[in-house]
Design goal:
16% strand, Ptyr_pPase, 4 helices, single chain, alpha/beta, Ptyr_pPase_sf, Rossmann fold
């Protein structure tokens, strides 16, 4: 079973949304996890809310440190923020590594935009990228 780890700095929003979307898109045969270089200790409630709108339940997710996965046999590491990309350690073995950066939803609010709409906008950007990635994986 292929193991994919999605990293962000705080592991509170982007990496969890990407984890939920990718797990949903890939289905069986893959383990998808998320973690952070400096875990916030919680999953942002608005991230949970906007993912529920897609039918993806993240209420059981928790904020984890990337060290938990160093010896887990990870095949692919995907960073979703610049800080995590720079802080990402070298994982043992032959690991595929990708970086797709997204704005941090709690700090991405545009003029006239409600905070929940910033979360939705970034969720939709993540969904577009990670569903395309999943489609490519399933073709191989």
């Amino acid at each position: 079973m292929k193991k994919i780890l999605i990293l962000c700095t705080g592991n509170s929003c982007r990496s969890h949304m990407a984890e939920g979307i990718l797990r949903n898109a890939l289905g069986e045969g893959y383990e998808v996890h998320s973690a952070g270089a400096k875990p916030a200790g919680y999953v942002h409630p608005q991230a949970i809310e906007v993912m529920t709108e897609l039918g993806i339940d993240m209420s059981g997710h928790s904020s984890k440190h990337l060290d938990q996965f160093l010896e887990a046999g990870i095949d692919t590491v995907i960073t979703v923020c610049g800080n995590a990309d720079q802080a990402c350690p070298t994982f043992p073995g032959l690991v595929n590594r990708y970086h797709w950066g997204f704005e941090d939803p709690p700090h991405a609010q545009r003029e006239g935009e409600e905070l929940v709409d910033a979360f939705r906008r970034i969720r939709d950007e993540i969904k577009l990228v990670f569903e395309a990635y999943a489609s490519g994986l399933k073709e191989n």
